[in-house]
Every structure is written in C-alpha cells, then in structure tokens.
C-alpha cells in the first residue's frame, strides 16, 4: 500500500495532538511536514508544542516542524484557549522539546514547496485557523490547483457556533484567512461542528485507550483534561473529536455526511464574525434572486459536512490510536 503525501497544519492544542497520533496510526499517510499555526495559543507556543509532540510520537528526526504565522491576516494576535486545552495548550504536560534543528522555512513556505514537489498528490489537513494556508494562497494563487485536497476542521454550516452563537473557533480566529481559502478554488472539505459535535468520545472509550497500554498514556491524560473542560462547559461526560475527525475524513468521507456547496465567511460584522454561510449547490432560491456577485462567488464550492456519516469515527479513533505508540 502506498502512503500518500500529506501535511498536517495544526495549532496544538489537545485535539491537534490526538490528530497527529491518529494520523500516524492509520498507516495511510506519508507525513511530509508538521506545520504549526497560532490559534489555540500564540504561534511561538504552538510551534514549541508541535516540536514536543513530534518528539513524543518519535517522528522529529524525519518530519520537519515549521513555525507558523505570528498573527491572523488582519486581526489582533491569537489569544489562548487555555480553558479547553490547559495553560500551555497540552493539558498539564511539560513535554521536552525536540533536539531537531529549526527549519528556516515558515509553515506557508513549506506548504508552497511541498505543493510543487507533490503537485496533484498532496493532501493538506488543517486543524487550526487557516492563516498559513491563506498566506500560501496569497503568495501563489496556483497553490489552490496543485493541492489534491484541503480538509480543514472549522466552521458551522447549519448548527450553532462554539465561540459565538454563530461561529466556530478556528474560523472566528482568522475569518479573513478562511475566506481567502474557501474562495480560492482549492478543492476543500469542511469538517465542521455539524459533524464533529456528533462523534463524541466518552468514558468507555477512555477506558479502552487506558487498557491499550503505555503508548496511549499521553493521549489518555490529554483526553482527561479535555473531557473535564467539556464537562465544565456543560458538554456532559464526553468530548468531541474535532481535529482527529478531519484527519479521518482525509482518507474516508464516510465518517461524515457531506453536500457540495459554497462557503462564504462573514468578515465584516463583529456580531457574526466568522460565520460560515453555506450555499448548497442544489439550493432552491425560493425567496430571493441571487445577486451577480453571489452567483460568481458561489462557483467556488467544496464538500461541506452536514452531519456524521455511516462509518463510526469514534470506534475507528479508539482502534487506531494504539497502533502508533507515543512516549511520555
Ligand atoms: Ca486545533
């Protein structure tokens, strides 16, 4: 079986950490770079966390970790989502840094180079704000046509948001970047809250990972912190698997139910900042006539998750994670 080239663009973050270990566990991917981006925490911290995680999953001698953009395209610098991810983003962990050299290329530069090296083959999985991907597109719009597919975790097509009534965190954090990306013509799949809030990880799943041994001990500690955070925020005894789900969908869309359509990101209003307006390709415009600009904009379409799919993602996650043991 050939492993396909992929870049994981991430703002670790607990579920980002789980997404990395899950990606390696699938055995389906040849991870060409782990590009960090600010989001859950400022860019310096997510870079440090990404390096430490690369070491924990024993890839740091093979896979370069890159430093991401220092701030969103046109907003104030990233703030910390420590409420969910712990003070430094990875629960209560103090993982040692990797001894790997610091690459000179930024995350966006690495994305551009790899899109040329693996033209037509490269999958990009983004599990943080879309700043790096937007910078790559602004630098070279043809990036959109060299990438095989971008699968990103973010947005809320037909459900409420998780950072405001209408916006999901990754898109809200850098809505301008998200709009650059989803209007670029890049083949994208949006793994949004419509799907990720439906694949929950509960205490029986945690017990299964605990029983899997030392290779999942780090994941179990991280998941405990994450589940506690969701409990505090009224989520009950389970947490969503946002970022791992995006990785899962890179290989198999049947983890979600998706429809084709345009996504337009609200960038002007503060009240609805980062709302992802979904315009299904099959929509009936029963009560309005589309403006020419909306018709033109709605030509950039992608796959948009509207709910969970027939294949059980939580089950796959629990079975796959132990296949790539982590240390620490
Ligand atoms: Ca993330």
From TrEMBL:
Superkingdom assignment: Bacteria
KW Nuclease (keyword) present: no
Pfam families in UniProt: IU_nuc_hydro
The Inosine/uridine-preferring nucleoside hydrolase domain, residue ranges: 6-280
A GO cellular component entry from the record: cytosol
Gene Ontology BP annotations: purine nucleoside catabolic process
Keywords in alphabetical order: Glycosidase, Hydrolase
Keyword Transferase set for record: no
A GO molecular-function descriptor: purine nucleosidase activity
Descriptive protein name: Nucleoside hydrolase
């Amino acid at each position: 079986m050939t492993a396909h080239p992929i870049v994981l663009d991430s703002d670790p973050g607990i579920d980002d950490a789980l997404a990395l270990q899950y990606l390696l566990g699938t055995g389906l991917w040849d991870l060409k770079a782990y590009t960090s981006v600010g989001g859950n925490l400022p860019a310096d911290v997510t870079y440090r966390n990404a390096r430490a995680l690369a070491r924990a999953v024993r890839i740091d001698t093979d896979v370069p970790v890159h430093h991401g953009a220092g701030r969103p395209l046109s907003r104030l610098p990233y703030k910390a989502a420590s409420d969910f991810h712990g003070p430094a983003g990875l629960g209560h962990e103090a993982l040692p840094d990797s001894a790997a050299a610091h690459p000179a290329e930024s995350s966006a530069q690495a994305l551009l180079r790899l899109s040329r090296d693996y033209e037509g083959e490269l999958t990009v999985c983004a599990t943080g704000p879309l700043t790096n991907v937007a910078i790559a597109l602004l630098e070279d719009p043809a990036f959109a046509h060299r990438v095989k597919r971008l699968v990103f975790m973010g947005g809320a097509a037909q459900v409420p948001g998780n950072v405001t009534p209408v916006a999901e965190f990754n898109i809200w954090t850098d809505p301008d970047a998200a709009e650059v990306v989803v209007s670029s013509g890049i083949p994208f799949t949006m793994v949004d809250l419509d799907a990720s809030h439906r694949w929950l990880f509960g205490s029986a799943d945690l017990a299964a990972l605990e029983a899997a041994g030392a290779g999942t001990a780090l994941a179990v500690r991280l998941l405990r912190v994450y589940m506690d955070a969701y409990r505090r925020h009224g989520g009950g005894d389970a947490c969503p698997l946002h970022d791992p789900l995006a990785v899962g969908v890179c290989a198999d869309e049947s983890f979600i139910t998706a429809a084709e359509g345009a996504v337009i990101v609200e960038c002007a209003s503060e009240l609805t900042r980062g709302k992802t307006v979904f315009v299904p390709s099959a929509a009936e415009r029963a009560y309005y006539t589309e403006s020419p600009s909306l018709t033109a904009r709605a030509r950039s379409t992608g796959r948009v998750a509207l709910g969970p799919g027939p294949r059980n993602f939580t089950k796959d996650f629990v079975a796959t994670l132990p296949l790539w043991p982590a240390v620490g």
